[in-house]
Specification:
The protein has 402 residues and is an alpha+beta fold. The chain contains 11 helices and 11 strands. The chain has helices spanning 62-76, 109-115, 122-141, 199-202, 210-226, 236-245, 260-269, 281-288, 325-328, 370-374, 384-391; strands spanning 19-20, 23-31, 35-42, 48-54, 86-91, 97-102, 107-108, 154-159, 162-167, 308-309, 333-334.
Length: 402
């Protein structure tokens, strides 16, 4: 059935077998607040893809429709193994835009960190951070600021060469356009995830640049090594107050084994004043490079070479189970096997518990379609009410090491 002849006006009419401009719908995978995600298949090559379609309720929002497509096309210009690949962008006959993306097997970084007992070995953490920094370096060179770097927006795959990190979700990115203001964000609008946001971003400054992403990269590194964000709190106001007034706890409070130079490099990336902050993603890569490959920090084990990394989805019982690599691929399937973790560090007095995941449950729907779920492409904007509704005060205790 061709979607044009069928007069499809809503994503919920995209039944299995429906043909959409060279692709065939295989099944619905998830429904979010602003988009539907489908497993698809390229008709000529039989290649599996993820297809994301804007919800019909946003059909009349011209700004959102434009941003959905324009930012997808912007990411298509970023040729990097560390950035999610967008294959094509199109529009249904009813006017709804859709994006076709690569279909990945892997694990988001939040859950990989969880598997390591909330504290990664230095080499593993810095390898992933370096790859993320490479992605940001390229994006910044094209004038694109991500604005939402966090573990949930980074996808990790096990390859024959080791762990491969890919940056997802450029939906909150600031993309320059000819003849338009380079920011789609109004002054005073906070866009991003507060735990990882630089002070200028928390304040809704329209003039943010790549240094805001560098700050987030510093927080990401801090969290991978300690299991904590430097500033934690139950709501945006408290996080902003701490970020504006307090000094972040030293990483040595959690990891006294870390080299002083590494701790200082991470602190420099998280400097409150952006004019004194580490100036670029490249500079941060260079600052942490000397601390790689120390024999004492080598992980004792790693994912099986050439295997897929699988995370079980969280889903509603009403939805069909999402296939994992073990049911859809001939390759052997395994989960990441981190080294046996040391006992977790004593938490800092201001943060006695590990914060609960700061993402929508759909973000963990299944490893094989995580890219499609996380690449929001202009469909999400952080506001205080939304944050308080999804975050609340719920927290999960730091798990004991296995």
């Amino acid at each position: 059935m061709n979607e044009r002849r069928a007069r499809i006006r809503s994503p919920n009419q995209l039944a299995p077998g429906t043909e959409v401009q060279g692709y065939r719908i295989v099944r619905k995978l998830a429904v979010g607040g602003t988009a539907w995600v489908f497993e698809g298949q390229h008709i000529e090559s039989n290649r599996r893809v993820a297809i994301k379609v804007l919800s019909d309720q946003y059909r009349g929002d011209s700004c959102l429709v434009r941003r959905f497509a324009n930012e997808a096309r912007a990411v298509m210009t970023l040729d990097s193994p560390h950035i999610i690949t967008i294959e094509s962008v199109g529009t249904l006959s009813a006017g709804l835009p859709f994006i076709v993306m690569e279909y990945l097997d892997g694990l988001d970084l939040y859950h990989l960190l969880e598997q390591y007992g909330w504290r990664m070995p230095v080499d593993v953490a810095l390898s992933i951070v370096d790859q993320v920094a490479q992605a940001l370096e390229l994006a910044h060179a094209h004038g694109i600021i991500h604005r939402d770097i966090k573990p949930e927006n980074i996808f990790v795959l096990a390859t024959s060469d080791g762990l491969l990190a890919k940056v997802l979700d450029f939906g909150l990115s600031r993309v320059p356009r000819a003849g338009e203001n380079s920011s789609l964000t109004r002054t005073g609008t906070t866009v991003g995830t507060p735990h990882y946001m630089a002070l200028e971003q928390l304040r809704g400054d329209r003039t943010i640049d790549g240094r805001a992403d560098v700050y987030s990269l510093g927080v990401l590194t801090y969290e991978l090594l300690s299991g904590h964000c430097p500033f934690e709190g139950p709501d945006l106001h408290e996080i902003m107050q701490r970020a504006a007034r307090e000094q972040a706890p030293s990483l040595h409070d959690y990891r006294p084994d870390l080299p002083e130079g590494l701790v200082q490099a991470i602190a420099h990336a998280m400097t409150r004043d952006r004019n004194k902050r580490c100036p670029s993603a490249r500079a941060f890569r260079e600052a942490i490079r000397p601390f790689w490959n120390n024999e004492s920090t080598q992980p004792e084990s790693s994912p099986t070479r050439g295997s897929s990394v699988v995370v079980q989805p969280e889903r509603n019982d009403s939805e069909a189970p999402v296939p994992t690599a073990s049911t859809t691929s001939h390759a052997p399937s395994t989960t990441v096997s981190p080294p046996k973790a040391s006992p977790p560090p004593t938490p800092h007095p201001r943060s006695t518990q590990r914060p609960a995941p700061r993402h929508n449950p759909l973000a963990t729907i299944a490893a094989v379609v995580f890219a499609a779920l996380m690449l929001s492409l202009g469909l999400t904007c952080f506001v205080v009410d939304t944050y308080q509704q999804t975050q609340g005060t719920a927290k999960a205790s730091l798990p004991s090491a296995p």
